[in-house]
């Protein structure tokens, strides 16, 4: 059962506002690419390819979308340029559906998983700790008991930031001194959560280590130590990416999916950028569900990713 309610009008309006820069940029490029054209021919498809690539959809995903549209043109024989937007919208929605980005309404905590452990990963500056705070708020609003773990012990600012979020939301934070073993913090967090009969645990992790091997070793150690308390923890490894960085977000996703078993993604900062197309490409290339998108700094500005609503906001 979904925790955070229906995709209501307020959320949709926020989504429309948050994607305004992406939509304006994308649709204006699309309009220019088909101006004066009566049919979808090779030149229109070349123009569309450029539109998608420059909208940060990514080269591989762009080529797949073009391939699908070419197949539609070949099958239907004649497609007018005025139909192109509708076809493009359908193909992007289909692509997102095929790649596990279903229309979710928030976290669904499986029965028998208590506490449900979410380990949050991502580089510094992407909004990782803020995402944890917003999730904690939403879980608490849903009536669940939440515990946070400050396992990014490499930066004093990270520990302080999550402590501030804990105080702001009204949930306990397990922390140790800067430089402490992150795995030890994770262990203590799970121990505390079990003692408090908590429903959900959110574990923050370091955003930057010296190399990919160091990252892999650290995350593997944290998982191994947590499993001494809860054998199947973590139940979700959430990768947080900054949507405003465009193609750099792809590279971060490559690094983290190579380093650990990422099971969900959250893409933040979409409200201040025209690079929202990155959501489409990341979903397609990594076949990992995009669970949330960030559309602002407020506690309510983290939305469950709804494929249909996203595509609707992008094209309307």
Question: Any overview of this molecule?
Answer:
With 316 residues, the chain is an alpha/beta fold. It folds into two domains: 88 residues, Four Helix Bundle (Hemerythrin (Met), subunit A), CATH 1.20.120; 191 residues, Rossmann fold, CATH 3.40.50.300. It is built from twelve helices and eight strands. It has an eight-stranded mixed β-sheet, with helices on both faces. It is elongated. The two termini are 30 Å apart.
Task: Quickly list its features.
single chain, 316 residues, alpha/beta, Four Helix Bundle (Hemerythrin (Met), subunit A), Rossmann fold, 2 domains, elongated
Low-confidence stretches: 1-6
Order of helices and strands: HHHHHEHEHEHEHEHEHEEH
Spatial order of strands in the largest sheet:
3-2-4-1-5-6-7-8
Evaluate the radius of gyration. Answer: 21 Å
Number of strands: 8
| Overall body shape | elongated
Strand content: 5-15%
| Class by SSE composition | alpha/beta
Q: Helix content range of the residues, please?
A: 40-55%
**pLDDT averaged residue by residue:** 88
User: Largest sheet, if any?
Assistant: 8 strands, mixed
Domain module count: 2
CATH topology of the largest domain: Rossmann fold
Ends apart, CA distance between termini = 30 Å
């Amino acid at each position: 059962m979904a925790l955070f309610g229906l995709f209501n009008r307020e959320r949709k309006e926020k989504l429309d506002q948050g994607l305004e820069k992406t939509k304006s940029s994308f649709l204006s490029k699309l309009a220019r690419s088909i101006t004066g054209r009566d049919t979808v021919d090779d030149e229109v498809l070349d123009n569309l390819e450029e539109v998608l690539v420059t909208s940060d959809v990514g080269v591989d995903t762009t080529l797949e979308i073009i391939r699908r549209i070419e197949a539609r043109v070949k099958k239907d024989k004649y497609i007018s340029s005025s139909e192109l937007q509708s076809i493009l919208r359908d193909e992007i929605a289909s692509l997102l559906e095929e790649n596990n980005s279903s229309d979710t309404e928030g976290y669904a905590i499986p029965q028998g998983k208590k506490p449900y452990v979410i380990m949050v990963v991502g580089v510094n500056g992407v909004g990782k700790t803020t995402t944890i705070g917003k999730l904690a708020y939403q879980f608490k609003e849903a009536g669940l008991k939440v515990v946070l773990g400050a396992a990014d012990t490499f930066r004093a600012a990270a520990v302080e930031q999550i402590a501030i979020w804990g105080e702001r939301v009204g949930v306990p934070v397990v922390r140790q001194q800067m430089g402490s073993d992150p795995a030890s913090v994770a262990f203590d967090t799970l121990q505390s959560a079990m003692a408090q009969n908590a429903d959900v645990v959110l574990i923050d992790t370091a955003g930057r280590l010296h190399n990919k091997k160091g990252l892999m070793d650290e995350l593997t150690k944290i998982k191994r130590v947590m499993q001494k308390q809860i054998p199947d923890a973590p139940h979700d490894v959430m990768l947080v990416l900054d949507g405003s960085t465009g193609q750099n977000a792809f590279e971060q996703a490559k690094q983290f999916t190579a380093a650990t078993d990422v099971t969900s993604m959250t893409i933040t900062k979409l409200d201040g950028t025209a690079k929202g197309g990155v959501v489409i490409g990341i979903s397609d290339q990594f076949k990992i569900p995009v669970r949330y998108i960030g559309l602002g700094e407020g506690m309510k500005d983290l939305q469950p990713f709804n494929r249909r609503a996203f595509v609707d906001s992008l094209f309307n």
